[in-house]
Design goal:
The chain has about 525 residues and is α+β, with helices and mostly antiparallel strands. It is built from 20 helices and twelve strands. A hairpin with a 3-residue loop joins strand 11 and strand 12. The longest helix has about 35 residues. It is elongated.
């Protein structure tokens, strides 16, 4: 949970293992919010570490602790090799490749891992968790290559975080790339000396998929708000019929999310004259306008599904095996079900597997593509004088000028990229470890491609917004709704109306960066829709 900081202009996220939200992830990853461990976390970790120490002392066969990993799980490790095995685990799995992930994504993965460890179950040495928190608060960002996870834990990427934790690898600090030990030293931190199991825990679970997923869900919710605001602006320019948004109409077939989308569109259109169906030019509009609530509602529903799948990943234990402290039991040794000791149990787990999360990311990708498709089509309908009642190509000179017609090609190019990225990744499992690890989810890839899709969708919405603002100028409605008036005013402060033909790509970029990307505009639009809710 996020709380105001003790110093002006700062905020803090309290990590307790159970209440981390997408907004918290964004606060840490994007705004550098301080991370603070809840009081109960370190005692919890100490109790679980006692279970690990007990099993090590008794040399009970336990996966990844006293045995090897993957296909080597039947290999018993010598007692004096356990700590060195932790270090080798990190070094041997740091095999990701490609450009480093952006620092916000790495921060998101770190806060997700810290919260997962705080939730309990990993058995990690308690001192390592404050070190991870210190790295976040000191802005020591491990360089994590972008490719390496197939969704059977984010092993090969998170191992690069583990390298920095033990004073190896590379990290960025204050814009400079340093070796891990130097970065920690400059931040006033000391490398960890990993004990048994620690190396595996540092690499384990799916914090990259979860953390990156938290970022994309946070942004996707905002992009949906922007899509509804831009749609409302197009409604004004087209003089659309708003009767399909009537609650009585929607209640006859209550599809998921559509009433919420319609309420928000009407909230944005409030105080204008378009909410009176008698003001509509046409009895029935094209589907891209008439069914906007249905398509945006599907995206609302996909976000709900993704949020439900993500919450357990942000606030649960994705380790294998898991450590259960304080459950008692005998010290008789191990069974097929797990390892039992006087202080608790260590059990085999499948909690690292993320099929629901991967499916949710795929669903969200498809819903974003539907939203993109109708945005491009609405923009094209504005250009058609037979449908819009406006001059051809939205040029005051009519068909003798190109107007916005060439910009429609850019819109279609953006839709093509978005559609390509919407291909499901959860149905392409990969396997390893001599067939022992014979399924995977690609959840991390599912989150990463969503980032690109959201960038392209916002650019597409900027295309529609530029065209819709021109349509409003040409239609000259007497009174605009609150949301369209806000957007139109913001656009016209940056971009003049189109008179004679000119390059419009630069206008789209300015609207995308300075209006659709503006926290001030986003917050103002959010306030308008929350009033209605």
């Amino acid at each position: 949970m996020t709380e105001p900081g003790t110093e002006q202009g700062t905020e803090a996220v309290i990590v307790d293992g159970h209440s981390l939200s997408c907004a918290d992830v964004a606060a840490v990853a994007l705004r550098g919010a301080r991370v603070v461990l809840a009081d109960e976390v370190l005692p919890r970790l100490a109790r679980e570490r006692a279970v690990v120490d007990d099993v090590v002392d008794r040399q009970v066969p336990t996966y990844g602790l006293t045995t090897g990993l993957g296909s080597r799980s039947s290999y018993a490790l010598p007692r004096d090799e356990l700590a060195r095995f932790s270090v080798r685990t990190v070094r041997g799995r740091a095999n990701a490749v490609g450009d480093p992930l952006p620092a916000p994504v790495v921060r998101a993965a770190l806060i997700a891992r810290v919260n997962g460890l705080a939730a309990g179950g990993s058995g990690i040495s308690p001192a390592i968790v404050p070190l991870l928190v210190g790295m976040l608060n000191s802005r020591v960002h491990p360089l994590v290559p972008e490719v390496g996870s197939i969704g059977a834990s984010d092993l090969c990427q998170m191992a690069h975080v583990g390298l920095v934790v033990i004073g190896e690898g590379r990290a960025e600090l204050s814009g400079e790339v340093l070796d891990g030990a130097a970065a920690l030293r400059r931040a006033g931190l000391a490398p960890a000396v990993p004990g048994p199991k620690d190396g595996h825990v540092l690499c384990s679970a799916s914090p990259l998929a979860a953390g990156h997923g938290g970022l994309v869900l946070h942004e996707a919710a905002t992009v949906l708000l922007l899509a509804q605001a831009v749609t409302a602006l197009t409604f004004e320019g087209f003089r659309a019929n708003t009767s399909p948004l009537d609650a009585r109409v929607l209640s006859l077939r209550p599809a998921p999310g559509q009433s919420r989308a319609a309420e928000r569109l009407l909230a944005l259109l409030a105080d204008g004259d378009l909410t009176d169906p008698l003001r509509a030019r046409r009895v029935q509009d094209p589907i891209s306008l008439r069914c906007a609530a249905q398509v945006h509602g599907a995206l609302h529903s996909a976000l709900d599904f993704a949020g439900a799948a993500l919450d357990p990943e942000l606030n649960g234990c994705g380790d294998n095996p898991v450590v259960l402290a304080g459950s008692g039991g005998s010290s008789s040794g191990s069974t097929d079900e797990g390892t039992t000791g006087l202080t608790g149990e260590i059990l085999s787990s499948g909690n690292f597997h993320t099929p629901a999360l991967a499916l949710a990311f795929d669903t969200l990708a498809l819903a974003l593509t539907q939203t993109a498709a109708i945005s491009a089509e609405r923009m094209r309908r504005l250009l058609d004088p037979g449908l819009s009642g406006l001059p051809a190509n939205l040029s005051p000179y009519g068909p003798e000028r190109s107007g916005f017609a060439p910009l429609a090609k850019t819109a279609q190019a953006l839709v093509a990229e978005i559609r390509l990225l919407s291909a499901p990744v959860s149905t392409d499992p990969r396997h390893g470890a001599d067939g022992v690890e014979d399924d995977s989810t690609n959840a991390s890839l599912g989150a990463r491609r969503l980032s690109t899709m959201l960038v392209r969708l916002r650019q597409l919405l900027a295309v529609e917004a530029v065209a819709a603002a021109q349509a409003v100028d040409l239609a000259a409605p007497a009174v605009l709704g609150r949301g369209p008036a806000l957007l139109h005013r913001a656009i016209r402060e940056l971009v003049p109306p189109l008179d004679d033909d000119r390059p419009c790509g630069v206008d789209v970029d300015r609207v995308n960066d300075d209006i659709l990307g503006s926290d001030e505009v986003r917050n103002a639009l959010r306030a308008l829709t929350e009033e209605a809710s």
